Amino acid sequence: MRLEKNSRSEELLFYALVGVGALVTAVGLAAALYMEHAGHVVTGMNNQVVWGMPHVFAIFLIVAASGVLNVASIGSVFGKAVYKPRAPLSGLLALVMLAAGLMVIMLDLGRADRLVVAMTHFNPTSVFGWNVILYPGFFAIVGLYLWTLMDRKMNPYYKPAGLAAFVWRLILTTGTGSIFGFLVARQAYQSAVIAPMFIIMSFAWGLAVFMIVQKSMYAWNGMTLHPAVRSRMKNLLGTFVAAVFYFVLVYHLTNIYYAKETAFERFILLEGGIFPSLFWGGWLFLGTIVPLLLIYVPDLNQLRGSVFAAAVLVVVGAFCLLYVFIIGGQVYPLDIFPGMEVTSSFMDGQIDHYRPSWPEILLGLGGIGLAFTATAIGVRVLKFLPEDDLAKLESAGHMLD
Amino acid sequence: MTEPQDKSRRKFVAGAAVAGAGLGVAALAPGLHLIEVAGAAPQAPRAAGEPAPSTVRWGMLIDTTKCATGCDKCVTACHTENGINETVQDVRQGSQWIRKIDLKDPKNGRTHSLPMMCQHCEKPPCVDVCPTGASMKRADGIVLVDRHICIGCRYCMMACPYKARSFVHQPLTAQNPEVPRGLGCVESCTFCVHRVDKGLQPACVEACPERAMLFGDLNDPTSEIAKRLAQEPATQVRADLKLNVGVRYKGI
Q1: CA torsion, points B132, B133, B134, B137, in degrees to nearest 10?
Q2: How would you list the strands of the sheet with B213-217, edge to edge?
Q3: What separation, in Å, do the N-terminal and C-terminal C-alpha atoms of chain B show?
Q4: How many domains are contained in chain A?
Q5: B132-156 residues labelled b (16+ CB within 10 A) or e (exposed)
Q6: Fewer CB in 10 Å around end: N or C, chain A?
Q7: Distance from the Cα of residue B117 to its chain's centroid
Q8: Which residue(s) pair with B137 in the sheet?
Q9: Measured between alpha carbons, how far is A142 from A146 in angstroms, rounded to an integer?
């Protein structure tokens, strides 16, 4: 995607796309400013549902940021040649998505102006506190990794840098999952399976985002992905989607097995209105079953655009699953007095309700806008387009190893 | 103790309590006795700048057999004392430092009413999860939020098993200077720390018409609360979490 390759109409289209991305980002920033000025009273969040739509967007971006780096790791750490040309784009997406996710979560803070306080006051027992170290560390390590990939002088160091980035991202996603996994208060959380579940979700969602971006870049440049590369990546996506299914299944089965959690599971899977709909229809059907069919059924996976559609649906399913997990987990009442019928002025014993407000949604979309804009500019000014030298790969015998 | 008291009376009661601590009965004047005033003023005032003593563990015993369904005088007193006076359209976005909960045991139909607030845990999850250390526990066991370094992430609210923390959702006016609050910060029951440091009782305890709430030093075996806890069965809510809470309930 070098400048000299683009015609004038393409130039205009590029600037239009960047303009739209910047506008979406600006609207998100304005929404955050409005929330800061008026207070969170203008949001749908409350003292029971304390995390809302911004957190759904932010956690998707942060988890997928970690996972999208997987593409680079497969090349650098596990030596799969077909993934090596994809490492720079993988690193770029990891950086911009993490930046976008952090922007959303930071701007949702009650006191976003105290960012410096968050950086200078550290509580070692807080999982959030660990993340204050893990996130900047991710930027530094992935930045270094990108440097080793894109600067010939630094190229000899790409393997250790790739390994460091791989390990760091596993720790980072463990930290993100543990934000929930370490919570004893609410029925939906406090599970050791959440951290590994977040890691495998990051693999699937990150790869899906990578494939969407890669497909878009190839389409822009009038290129077609080699069928063998397409086949490898779609199969990997299928494996990750199936693995997410397995972890989500284990998470819910263990909860169903525990008598104290069965009421919560009945709510989230059967009786909870929008949450069962999003779980079964959004995540399981649209985000898992349909992508797996598009990937593995021969008649379907040969169709033009089927893999791209599968990747898009995986992302749709991710948002559905996160909404169920984050919002559904909070609307369900805390079991403060087990076995008792409870009533109060503050939703004790009752299912809460949450309706996301426009400022929250716009802030979340602003994060997507930032990731889009930064990616568009990044791939334009630097050489991030994955270009396969298939003849060389095949002759070297690495293509299908 | 059912009527609002002015400052001079509070000081007087506090002084009388110190004089009569441990006796249970204080002689105020010939022929006049204030029964159980020792429970009303658990310690001498603490001088400004003097650190909270680690020998003390403030706690509360709530007798749910006395707490009346429908009575929310403790809630009103808390709001008055702490300047919680904002009008909210959605009650779920309003600050609830203390709330009344009604319980019914479906097995036998027994009902209970009780106030729920920060339980001032010995091992508070809110303190563990706070990224900046704004959630903190004082040496005397009172769990507080440092308004200066709270960034409003609400992680403590996710972690609190008692739903005892509130996030300030809208701008505030007419605050009590002794109880600073702030838009975008998290807050919760402080055991009326500003009163305790003066040797006074939390406002809710003072307001309870049934004397269902008893405040005192759990570490002092001579205190009224320690004596009663030694003699009467009391429950820690969510005892399974082993947080060793400072608020105990009798009768549930």
Answers
A1: 170
A2: B213-217, B58-63, B247-250
A3: 25
A4: 1
A5: bbbbbbbebbbbbbeeebbbbbbbb
A6: C
A7: 7
A8: B143
A9: 6
Q: How many residue pairs from chains A and B have C-beta atoms closer than 8 A? A: 175
DSSP string, A278-320: IIIIIIIIIIIIHHHHHHH-HHHHTSTTHHHHHHHHHHHHHHH
Residue to substitute from A331, A335, A340, A341, interface B, most B β-carbons within 10 A: A340
Tell me whether residue A252 is in a domain.
yes
Segment B72-90 mean pLDDT: 94
CB atoms near residue A225 (< 10 Å): 19
Q: Is A4 exposed, middle or buried (0-12, 13-18, 19+ CB in 10 A)?
A: exposed
Residue A372 lies in a domain: yes
Evaluate whether A249 touches A269 at the Cβ level (below 8 Å): no
According to DSSP, the residues that pair with A35 across neighbouring strands are none
Exposure string over A362-386, b if 16+ CB within 10 A, otherwise e: bbbbbbbbbbbbbbbebbeeeebbb
Q: What pLDDT, in 10s, does the model give residues B125-176?
A: 999 999 999 999 999 999 999 999 999 999 999 999 999 999 999 999 888 9
A274 is a domain residue: yes
B48-250 CATH, one of 3.40.50.150, 3.30.70.20, 3.80.10.10, 3.30.70.360: 3.30.70.20
CA terminus-to-terminus distance, chain A:
29
Cβ-Cβ contacts under 8 Å, B237 against chain A: 336-337
Convert the pLDDT of each residue in A376-395 to its tens digit.
999 888 878 887 776 666 66
Return the number of other C-beta atoms located less than 10 Å from residue A391's C-beta.
Answer: 9
Q: For residue A121, what are its two tokens?
A: 């006051």
Which residue from B131, B182, B186 is facing A123, i.e. has the nearest CB? B131
ipTM field: 0.91
Which of these, A181, A68, A111, lies nearest to B184 by C-alpha position?
Answer: A111
Enumerate long-range contacts of B83-88, CB under 8 Å, 24 or more apart. B83/B172, B83/B174, B83/B175, B83/B176, B83/B179, B83/B181, B84/B181, B85/B174, B86/B170, B86/B172, B86/B173, B88/A41, B88/B169, B88/B170
Residue B114 touches partner A, C-beta closer than 8 Å: no
Task: Tell me the three state secondary structure of residue B235.
Answer: strand
Q: What is chain B's length?
A: 252
- Tell me the C-alpha to C-alpha distance, in Å, between residue A171 and each of A134, A198, A207, A298, B52: 8, 11, 18, 37, 39
Residue among A207, A209, A204, A179 at smallest CA distance from A194? A179
- Is A104:A61 a contact under the CB 8 Å cutoff? yes
Q: Which domain holds residue A220?
A: 9-382
Can you give the CATH number for the domain in which A232 is found?
A: 1.20.1630.10
**Model confidence band, residue B31 (pLDDT cutoffs 50, 70, 90):** very low
Domain definitions of chain B by residue range: 1-41, 48-250
Pairing of strands B247-250, B25-29: unpaired
Two structure tokens written together for B120: 């001032």
Does residue A387 lie in a domain region? no
Residue B99 token pair: 């709330």
**H or E segment to which residue B56 belongs:** none
